[in-house]
Predict the 3D structure of the following.
Amino acid sequence: MSEKIRVRFAPSPTGSLHIGGARTALFNWLFAKRYGGTCVLRIEDTDEVRSTPETVDQILHSLSWLGLAWDEGPVLGSDGTVNLAGEGPFAPYHQMAEERRAHYAKYAAQLLDGGKAYKCWCTKEDIEVRRVTNPELRGYDGRCRRLSDEERKKNEGRPFSIRFAMPFEGTTVVEDLIRGNVAFENNLLQDLVIQKTSGGPTYNFACVVDDHLMDITHVIRGDDHLSNTPSQIRLYSALGWEPPKFGHLSMIHGPDGKKLSKRHGAASAGEYRELGFLPETVRNYLALLGWSTSDSQQVFAEGELESKFSIEGCSKSPSRFDREKLEWMNGEYLRAKTPEEMLRLSRPFLDAAQIEASDEALLPLLAMEREKFHLLTDVPKRLDFFFKDVEYDEKSVNKVLKKEGVDAILEAAAPMLEALAEWTEAKLEEAIRGFATEKGWKMGQVFHPIRVATSGRTDGPTLFGMLEHLGKDRVLARIAEARRRFCREGQSA
RNA sequence: GGCGCGUUCGUCUAGCGGCCUAGGACGCUGCCCUCUCAAGGCAGAGAUCACGGGUUCAAAUCCCGUACGCGCCA
């Protein structure tokens, strides 16, 4: 195809970027990257949902966090302010803008003049009454389309909407890139309102006008729009325009198979950032929801999604959002990070957990625990006892410290540790193993109590490395504290 | 209600008429490694390919119908 590809992502500014919206944005972006096209971001605020700088700001931030850069559309200034109109040859990129509204009115008038649309004086109430009294009626009965000139004249001056006159015969075929040809009977298409009584355009009309004026070549969107597509195609044709190519993506559902919503936990892309997910994880995971390669590849290196994405790989059936797989994938990406990268990424989460620690202190710990993190929020969770007072986990204490004979082991271990001249991982291992052997205790009998006494938990880093980083003073103090608090038996008051 | 879309392990999916005794991934179970937790390795359970009819020498794959789910319009 010789024409330059232009795709768009057109969210409604109803708040933060929904997971489904993020997926649509991602697929458009991947499509553009794959074929060297241009990405346009357009805010769809026709339905009296005013876009505010705040809502656009949220959407822009989420897209930018996900690493999806748009070539044209509203932009976020370096000072944090939003330029709603946006940058690019077709600005402004939101429909409530005066310049855009003038276009919609112009083309609606053109259709009206050409006899392809007509004025409708029926009110919402009229239509509702007719619907209730005549249950056979499917939608609008088209009565204003059949009005005589005389009757029309009588109505002039009263508020009206403009309806598009759908053909009565034939079929309209949507040649969908993902679902193949889908045919719709024209006589079942409603005479849809293109201009409301208020003078503003309806969604379906504004969408068509904008996509045409912005030279959009491919419309990739959720399949909730598939049923609107034949009507849109009729509009293109009535305006004498070539419609873009369409591709309708299957929807994303929650774990229960119902539409994904707040009930299912985090529903907006931004929330995943706060939960400790990496943008590359969310991108990779979302890509796999509705798209796959023929070898079912799971994890993609940087740049690989862009080079492998294809519209043919898109699936027709809906998918469910699986948080467990998302977490696994995040672990995969986290494990691939260097300690330095981990440090930079986890800083905000350490700060939030009020853990103050120097880079020098953190780096070896991050290296030591590197393969254990699934979320960035796991970093403060796993490292807190290196920087704050130990919080003894009740289960761990009961299981290990309150066992008979443990106090004697800790009592004997303390002076042995105190006497250690060199406090290094290797020396600690040598000394503690030697100590256990000498006393006739099994390794685990000694290791576990020391672990729980010094970290407060049964799971943690490798014991000797942990002790080294904790330092002799803290290790001895914690052993003493643990004995005092949990090992009453065997104590001689 | 009308129209449209969809239906392969619990979940994401591969599959585009013979390579399928249906492959991979998450999760799950067991074993190995091992100072715990992970990670890793290995093994395993798990799908009568929604159901019923056709077409064909041969169907998860093509056609028709039914059911269920979802969407749009009302």
Residues 19-35 of chain A form the longest helix (17 residues).
